[in-house]
Amino acid sequence: MSLRGKSIFIGSLSFFCFALLRYFIPLRNMGFFVAACIVFVLAAVLFCIISGRRKERYSDKAERIWCVLPVVALTVWLILFYINETNTAEALDAAELIRRTFPFPIWITLMLAGTAVCLFLLKRSSAEKPYGINKIVRVVITGLFTIGTSVQFYAPNIFQDVQGGTYHSHAYTNSIINACWLIPYSHHMESLYGHYAILYMPVLKVLLRFFHVDYLTGIWIVTAAIAAVSILLFAYILNYFAKSNVIYYLALFAIGEEYFMLMQGGVYMQVHPHRMIFPVAIAALALLEHRKQKRYPVLSVILLTLSFVWSTEVGMVTMLAYTAYSWAWYAMDGERFSIHKVGLLFRELVIYVLLPFVLAYGVINGYNLLAGGSILNFEEFMFPLISDRGYIDSIELPLPDVTHAWTGSAVLFLGITVMSLLYLLLPEKGEEKGEKPYYFLLGVMCLGLMLYYINRPVEGCMFIVMFLMLIIQAIILQKSQQVYLEWKGSKEALFARPQRFLFLSLRIITTFILFIMAFDSLYSMPSAWKKSAETIWKRDELAEFAEHIWIQIPPDAKSFGEGVPELMALIDRDTHLHTTEWSYRNTPLDTMEMVRKDLEDEEWFFCSTASLYYMQCEYPGLTDHFYVHEEFEYNGAQFAFFRRIEE
């Protein structure tokens, strides 16, 4: 094993040892994760420096042990992961996991047989990229799979979303609908997920004006289109690294594990496409620069600016990750690390962090001023990362133990990051940088995105890194495949080069993991489409209910609550009462008080009874002056139309 490989393994062991101490270290989740990452990096770098200076040569037996140990450790971790996968507070539902619903002997036999078939096909594949008919087939299959996956994001009937009904959907769509009515952002109208509504709004206006598509339906059409674009960008990156068709299709189909197996009859836009579109777009741009060996700074700044406008937290991650990549582009010159390279980092921070941040601030406040609002202060601009409500801390959950997905994923991302970092800090004479700046981008971006899961470790949130994780796995598998082809051609003994055993083992393990994910995706696909047709695709049924609302409720009636803006958007009506989303009880108390006072002098109002209940718990008495004129119910969601009691 190379010195860098040994260093990464030492870093991995240090990370796991530190993670085992979670319950003894009084840090919040994100602080603990950052500390664990620092432990990994320091352990790896120090081992590399010390071992490099000693120039110690290991015996053949010791080298073999170095190569076998990571394989044994990974195998043990995978077994423990399978055993404990559902043994955590916010685990995936065992009833939805194919590996849990199939009898274990049948499931493991199928997985091993499938892996064996894939390895047999890999054995016959070449190391050359596909051309001619193979390239055309890739394009066709990718296109069909993209369409089949993205239609899962067309979910206009949010009331039949079995993944949470309006609870999750309203949290996302509320601010978009408000933006379509040109409502400025303020303390009373915020969004947990950024200012993405500004980018949705012009497209939805065009759909309504020229194609008569209502705002709610338009949101889901645009969301499905964004999901499709993100998948195509993923495929563009994958196509570059996966020379073998087997590797390409395994990784491509693997992305459907979440959308077909786990998210049947519903969507969770807050992860995909919301938190995944710009990371994969930035990754695609960086790959284009690598392929062309040409920088596109203007396009980069524009994309980073839009990324920050779209999502505050993801924007920060993409800016820092792209800055790291851009710095590595220039600093990885094969020369010793120097003060000059530190200066380069500051230059890149100004261009790719400070400049996009200022531009994003201008875009968001420009919209606010055009909409008749005021310039946002820094706290309002950075919500929810900075908030007097302490929102980020309030939603924190305990981290699962080290046998869960977060540790394995973190080690994978830290490994590819440190591999690039060691080249930057300790370059070896004559070694070319190759794709290391790009690997640096992938690693840093994945670690940054993981903070979303780390703060609130609900296992489904780990899918935020799925695209980039699959790219890294494809890179590892393709590299391992090249080692296999070289070994097959050389006819040497397996341990003639000890590192060969490590790569050939990774070839088997990575194929096994990707096959499981691809199998989950393809096996679940038909039932997922069927479930969607029975639930979230039933727009006409919801439109019929909304039509009844349109007839019974006066157009000037103020309305509020979870699911209410969506109903009004379906019939092209304003709520006349625009606030932060009511899901998760995220509406601030003073906003509830404002709503309460606004309604006191009204002749009538329409609302979600659940949201009214939440408000009445804090500010009771409103309904003392009103009576229920009519009640409405759709798929368990209840609404009421109140009229003032005549005195």
What would your notes on this structure say?
With 647 residues, this protein is mainly α. It has 2 domains: 3-154 and 185-534, no CATH class; 539-644, no CATH class. 65% of the residues lie in helices and 4% in strands. It is built from 25 helices and 4 strands. It has helices at residues 3-19, 29-54, 60-84, 98-101, 104-124, 133-150, 166-180, 197-211, 215-241, 245-254, 256-262, 277-292, 297-310, 312-331, 339-370, 378-381, 391-394, 405-425, 436-455, 466-490, 498-534, 539-552, 564-570, 589-600, 609-618; strands spanning 558-560, 604-608, 626-634, 637-644. A 4-stranded mixed β-sheet has the order 1-2-4-3. β3 and β4 form a beta hairpin. The longest helix is centred in the last third of the chain and has 37 residues, at 498-534. The chain is globular. The protein starts with a helix and ends with a strand. The mean pLDDT is 94.
Number of domains: 2
Q: Could you tell me the mean pLDDT?
A: 94
Percent helix among the residues? Answer: 55-70%
Report the sheet with the most strands, covering strand number, pairing sense and barrel closure.
4 strands, mixed
Based on Cα principal axes, name the global outline: globular
Give the helix/strand class. mainly alpha
| Proportion of strand residues | under 5%
Calculate Rg over CA atoms. Answer: 27 Å
H/E series:
HHHHHHHHHHHHHHHHHHHHHHEHHEHEE
Number of H- or I-type helical stretches: 25
Ends distance: 87 Å
Number of strands: 4
> Which stretches are poorly predicted, pLDDT < 50 over at least 5 residues?
none
Instruction: Give the strand line-up of the largest sheet.
Output: 1-2-4-3
